[in-house]
TrEMBL record:
Top-rank taxon, per record: Bacteria
Protein name: Transporter
Coiled coil: 185-212, 349-376, 400-427
Keywords tagged on the record: Coiled coil
Stated family: Belongs to the outer membrane factor (OMF) (TC 1.B.17) family.
InterPro entries xref list: MdtP/NodT-like, OMP_efflux
Residues making up the signal peptide according to the UniProt record: none
GO MF: efflux transmembrane transporter activity
Length: 459
């Protein structure tokens, strides 16, 4: 039932998620709703852990990059006479201790640190996009398992009807009380065999999908048992930012929403890091400075008189005079890299827009198909099946037509299920494109209709 704590809905850190009440998975005797499965997949995604380590690495590198290089210490003996190797023989002989320190060009240190900090700030945005992608992937797999399991249930329900048709045909053929022919009996048995084949194929697909879902849930045994409600629920978009989908969203509003997408924001952050890279490349035109100091100790002369020690200090710098093939090219390379990332941003924006428009078009057409199935098609198919059966029982119809009508009715119900599941899968994609993760108050995208709470037992 919807009110059971088993189907309690908890908010995700990702603002826009799909909520389907009443669907749960039995994994090692634990029950998971769809929302809980998404949370579990996100919490156990090793890619997110790798991103956190990359962020930590870049933060550490940024601190290191903003630090001056280590000073250089030198020890040596200068002007030692080689005829006697006597330290006190010559006045120029000395023991020297020196230290030197280089200073990077201009604002190189600050800009290196800034670039790495901006690169580290990309990682939370990349993780945000990854979590949204995981949400879509798990929802797609979950719904595919639901589709297969529900289809199996529908076929199982109708199999008894086809078995009954076989019995009727057998009885009519044996007693010769009707117009049943041997080919009608064979046709009825053939359709029943085909149903068995469809069930076998569906079970194979279900096992494959369960294995893929088990991968995201970090389950090595893949022993997942799906329990489904009688009605999936008919979700519809109700967030104020996107409830214009059914009538067509304005291009300006769509652009604003997509510009706030974490995938675009991560590229923007990358562009910002490359801006710092351009500034860093321009520092190569500035000189690099260095200072050095040394102390020279001298021994007393052969007569025992003290000698003065020496102290030296100096400044060094390099002057970039020939910049045509080094500094100019470094700046050009940095600018080209920045522009290349700007084109990447354009491509990502186009992909998001195209993906949204494709999903939106499919969503609207699926809504039309759902309305057609609900208002007319299912009812008409049922009436056709009943009419053909009534005509046959009154010796006014063909048995083959009865079988065809029942098969068509079953296929129509399965197709109606496919439309419902496809709507939810498209909603999952729309949630990804229109993910207002910057707005934590926008948490509900779907509304689940009331369900009877009756569950179809897992075979």
């Amino acid at each position: 039932m919807i009110g059971n704590s088993q189907y309690k809905i908890r908010p995700l850190c990702v603002a826009l998620v799909l909520v389907w009440s009443g669907i749960s998975v039995d994994l090692h005797a634990e029950q998971y709703s769809l929302l809980e499965a998404i949370e579990k997949a996100q919490s156990q995604d090793p890619w997110l852990d790798g991103s956190r380590f990359r962020e930590e690495s870049l933060e550490s590198l940024s601190i290191s990059a903003g630090t001056l290089p280590d000073p250089t210490v030198s020890l040596g003996i200068a002007n030692l006479p080689i005829d006697s190797f006597d330290f006190s023989q010559e006045g120029m002989t000395q023991f020297k201790v020196g230290v030197s320190q280089m200073f990077p060009r201009g604002k190189t240190l600050a800009l290196r640190q800034e670039k790495l900090e901006k690169m580290s700030q990309m990682q939370p945005l990349v993780r945000e996009d990854r979590r949204a992608q995981v949400s879509v992937t798990v929802a797609q797999l979950w719904l595919e398992v639901y589709r297969i399991q529900k289809t199996i249930a529908l076929i199982e329900q109708d199999r008894s009807l086809f078995e009954h048709l076989v019995d009727v045909a057998q009885s009519s053929y044996t007693t010769a009380s009707g117009r049943t022919r041997q080919q009608d009996l064979i046709r009825a048995q053939l359709e029943l065999t085909r149903l068995e084949d469809r069930l076998t194929m569906l079970r194979q697909r279900r096992e494959s999908q369960l294995a893929q879902l088990g991968e995201w849930l970090a389950d090595s045994s893949y022993e997942l048992a799906i329990e489904m409600p009688k009605n999936l629920g008919t979700g519809h978009l109700k967030d104020p930012l996107i409830n214009e989908i059914e009538t067509g969203i304005r291009a300006q509003k769509l652009a604003q929403i997509l510009m706030a997408h974490p995938k675009i924001r991560s590229v923007d952050q990358k562009i910002s890091a490359e801006e710092s890279g351009v500034k860093l490349a321009k520092q190569s035109y500035k000189p690099q400075w260095g200072i050095n100091a040394s102390y020279g100790y001298r021994d007393a002369d052969p007569m025992g008189n003290d000698r003065a020690d020496f102290f030296s200090v100096g400044v060094s710098l390099d002057v970039p005079l020939f910049t045509g093939k080094r500094q100019d090219k470094q700046v050009q390379a940095a600018v080209a890299e920045r522009e290349a990332i700007k084109t990447e941003r354009t491509l990502v924006l186009r992909q998001l827009r195209s993906g949204f428009e494709t999903a939106e078009s499919q969503y609207r057409r699926l809504l039309e198909r759902r309305e057609l199935y609900r208002s007319r098609l299912l009812k008409e198919m049922s009436e056709q099946a009943e009419a053909s059966l009534t005509a046959y029982t009154h010796d006014d119809g063909d048995f083959a037509e009865v079988v065809r009508a029942r098969i068509a009715e079953l296929n129509a119900r399965i197709e109606a299920l496919n439309v419902e599941v496809d709507i939810h899968k498209i909603v999952a994609q729309l949630n990804y494109f229109l993910n207002p993760s910057h707005n934590k108050n926008s948490a509900v995208l779907t509304d689940v209709s009331s369900a009877s709470g009756e569950l179809i037992d897992h075979e």
